[in-house]
């Protein structure tokens, strides 16, 4: 993709957010484990200059946090660090290594492993403790497989996509396919929530002004982070969970408590303080238990707080903020037509939709 492809940045950003929405709906054993679907547009855009590529990375990171409701949480920090480092590594590899020696598959695998190693290191420091070593093998294996699959997909997409290669739809049978596609009915609120659950909440925060709501979330997240007592953090977690429940944004409560218990368990693997009970070589200690509860309360509590107080309607200043706003607008159009995407024709269907939201003109540039 040449510099002219930078004009398609909003569509690429919307495509990334669309894939983030799909990935958000896929059950995962740990919330920061991702298949990396939203990295596909980053791989596709590696040919762009840095002043176009890295705003796309920014929109991917921030938009993903808006969709998953993790902006104020440690999960966002893991996503930010992992994506920023992996995107930088992939970009440098594309510039330093000729394409004949390393294609998109190799670059994608490298990026996935850089992201996973970064996340494991941060998870150990912030909430899993020494027990994080146990998640390293499955996480790295997932990154290896998903990174390879994503790279193969992007190689195939860049070779076959008319939109990517700047072929105007008006000059081919591709236009007929686009015109003949039946648009799916719009799904109210899908672009904002990313879930489209259809449930009516007891309190609808989507009707509140997003800026003051964001400011309140920022303030409350600071209260949680600076709370020294694990019991205070636990109380705040329960309050934020209740708020998420009444606003219809709590998600899967069972999964929340399962992950809460996993964090406590991983911290208990490094015992210290008074022994509460012993089973064989395993010792549950008061210090490790309280530390695990405090970390679990912060991780899950901040996720709940983010879901309640961060809205995709929030408009940020600057060029990147404008790109994010435009990406969410185009995301709404993609979500309206998502029922026209089928597994067997996924690439051609995505290609068609991208051509609809960012048409390529006769010059080979977006119109």
Polypeptide structure, described:
- There is one protein chain.
- This protein has 14 helices and two strands, in the order H-H-H-H-H-H-H-H-H-H-H-E-E-H-H-H.
- A hairpin with a 2-residue loop joins strand 1 (275-279) and strand 2 (282-285).
- Mean pLDDT is 84; it is low at 170-197 and 362-367.
- The protein folds into two domains: 3-187 and 314-357, no CATH class; 201-309, no CATH class.
- The protein has helices at residues 9-24, 40-44, 50-68, 74-96, 104-128, 136-160, 173-180, 190-193, 210-226, 230-246, 253-268, 286-309, 318-336, 346-357; strands at residues 275-279, 282-285.
- The chain is an all-alpha fold.
> Would you report the number of β strands?
2
Low-confidence stretches: 170-197, 362-367
Report the end-to-end length measured between terminal Cα atoms.
16 Å
Mean pLDDT, as a whole number? Answer: 84
Could you say which structural class the secondary elements and strand pairing correspond to?
mainly alpha
Helix content: 55-70%
Please give the oligomerization state of what you see: single chain
Radius of gyration equals 22 Å
Q: Into which percentage range does the β-strand content fall?
A: under 5%
Helix count from the secondary structure assignment:
14
The total tally of domains equals: 2
How are helices and strands ordered from N to C? HHHHHHHHHHHEEHHH
Strand order of the largest sheet: 1-2
């Amino acid at each position: 993709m040449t510099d002219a492809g930078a004009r398609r940045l909003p569509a690429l950003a919307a495509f990334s957010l669309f894939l983030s929405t799909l990935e958000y709906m896929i059950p995962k054993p740990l919330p920061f484990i991702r298949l990396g679907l939203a990295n596909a547009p980053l791989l596709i855009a590696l040919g762009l200059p840095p002043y176009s590529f890295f705003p796309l990375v920014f929109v991917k990171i921030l938009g993903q946090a808006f969709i998953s409701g993790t902006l104020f949480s440690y999960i966002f920090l893991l996503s930010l660090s992992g994506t920023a480092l992996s995107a930088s590594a992939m970009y440098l590899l594309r510039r330093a290594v000729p394409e004949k020696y390393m294609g998109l598959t190799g670059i994608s695998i490298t990026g996935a492993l850089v992201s996973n190693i970064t996340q494991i290191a941060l998870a150990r420091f912030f909430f899993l403790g020494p027990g994080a070593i146990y998640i390293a093998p499955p996480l790295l294996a997932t990154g290896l497989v998903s990174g390879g699959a994503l790279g193969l997909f992007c190689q195939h997409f860049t070779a076959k996509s008319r939109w990517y290669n700047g072929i105007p739809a008006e000059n081919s049978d591709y236009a007929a396919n686009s015109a003949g596609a039946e648009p799916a009915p719009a799904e109210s609120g899908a672009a904002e929530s990313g879930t489209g659950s259809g449930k009516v909440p007891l309190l609808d925060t989507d009707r509140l002004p997003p800026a003051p709501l964001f400011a309140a979330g920022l303030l409350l997240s600071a209260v949680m982070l600076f709370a020294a007592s694990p019991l205070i953090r636990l109380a705040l977690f329960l309050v934020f969970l209740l708020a998420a429940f009444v606003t219809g944004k709590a998600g899967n409560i069972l999964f929340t408590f399962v992950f809460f218990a996993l964090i406590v368990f991983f911290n208990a693997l490094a015992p210290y303080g008074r022994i509460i009970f012993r089973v064989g070589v395993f010792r549950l200690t008061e210090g490790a238990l309280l530390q695990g509860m405090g970390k679990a309360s912060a991780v899950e509590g901040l996720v709940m707080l983010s879901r309640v107080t961060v809205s995709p309607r929030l408009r940020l200043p600057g060029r990147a903020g404008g790109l994010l706003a435009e990406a969410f607008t185009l995301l709404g159009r993609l979500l309206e037509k998502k029922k026209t995407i089928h597994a067997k024709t996924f690439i051609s269907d995505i290609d068609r939709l991208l051509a609809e939201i960012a048409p390529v003109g006769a010059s080979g540039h977006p119109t």
